[in-house]
Design a protein that fits this description.
alpha/beta; Rossmann fold; 2 domains; 7-stranded mixed sheet; 12 strands; 46% helix; 18% strand; elongated
């Protein structure tokens, strides 16, 4: 039943623009139009879009009743985003919501300096030029930073605690992801502190994922950290499946990876963030100005461990980690 519901939801997201009867679409003309630009795909974010719509409902806006949402998907291919953002601006839309990381937010900002933007990113919006400050963003953009790209050192530390015998850690990094340089710098600094070697693997295509895992196996690298980024989010099943096939302990940035069979993850509960960006979008539609809405940050990060996967890998999870975990999947 869940898979059927998921497929139906994804079909709705993918085909909403052509599915409405003409009379219904005419009736919508007076409704605000929300542009939803994601660097990810409907397949890996359907539950998060539901959370976004819940936030909109809390603000009084219901898709198909008194609001219309135009969805555009980057599918992990960030070069698509500029064109998709420009398409939404031409509609035009009342507010642009961007998810899936920095590239979507930057594409929206490049496409318009007047339409309000509500973003979800993983890094520093001030450094990226998306906001003048956290408390007073200024201009036409505000949103939420989930700090995912700043947590790579913590993930490396957790992986070291789980697999202390691994002297070399493989790091999957997407060189096309805007915060790539920061992720790489942070990982190198953390590795020096932990007295670890990090084997850096630049991965931005499906073929490079396959090659990276073969390299891990050939060089007998003891564990992997998959860094944050929308390309990896859209390849979640492939990454988890190959990590199991090659029997290599791997840590990820979102709980969804661990729920799909990954070993361990450390990051935010994305559903909370997507609901909040829905609330922000609703506030903007009611007349709030982005420049007056502070950029939000998470206050809680979750450690999730899959004990079933650990057992399959022959890993004994230290009691300290089990106690520290917010969720243990058995």
């Amino acid at each position: 039943m869940l898979d059927l519901r998921r497929r139906q939801f994804i079909t709705l997201l993918g085909g909403a623009a052509v599915a409405w009867p003409l009379a219904a679409r005419a009736q919508q003309s007076a409704h605000p139009v929300i542009g939803y630009l994601s660097a990810r795909s409907p397949d890996d974010t359907w539950h998060l879009v539901e959370a976004f719509r819940r936030g909109l409902r809390e603000s009084g806006f219901v898709e198909g009743q008194n609001a219309t949402i135009e969805y555009r998907w980057g599918l992990g291919e960030q070069e698509r985003l500029a064109g998709l953002a420009s398409d939404l601006v031409r509609k035009p839309v009342s507010v642009l919501v961007t998810t899936g990381g920095e590239a979507a937010a930057l594409a929206a900002r490049a496409a318009t300096s007047t339409i309000p933007i509500a973003f979800i990113i993983g890094g520093d919006p001030v450094k990226l030029g998306l906001a003048a400050s956290y408390s007073r963003p200024g201009a036409n953009a505000t949103g939420i930073t989930i700090l995912s790209v700043t947590l790579e050192p913590k993930r490396l530390e957790l992986l070291r605690e789980l697999v202390p015998q691994a002297s070399t850690i493989g790091a999957f990094l997407d060189p096309n992801f805007p915060p790539y340089d920061d992720q790489l710098r942070d990982l190198r600094e953390a590795a020096r502190t932990l007295n670890l070697q990090v084997h850096e693997l630049r991965v931005s295509t499906d073929g490079e994922i396959d090659l990276a895992f073969k390299t891990i196996a050939e060089q007998r690298i003891g564990a992997i950290i998959v860094t944050a980024g929308p390309f990896f989010d859209t390849r979640r099943e492939k990454l988890v499946t190959l990590a199991a096939h090659y029997a290599v302990p791997t840590i990820y940035h979102f709980r969804e990876f661990t729920a799909a069979g990954g070993l361990m993850s450390y990051g935010i509960d994305s559903r909370v963030t997507y609901r909040q960006i829905g609330v922000y979008a609703g506030a903007i539609l009611k007349g709030e100005r982005p420049e007056d809405l502070p950029v939000l940050q998470p206050t809680k990060f979750e450690l999730v461990i899959n004990l079933k996967t650990a057992k399959a890998l022959g890993i004994k999870v230290p009691l300290t980690l089990q106690v520290a975990a917010d969720e243990v999947i058995e």
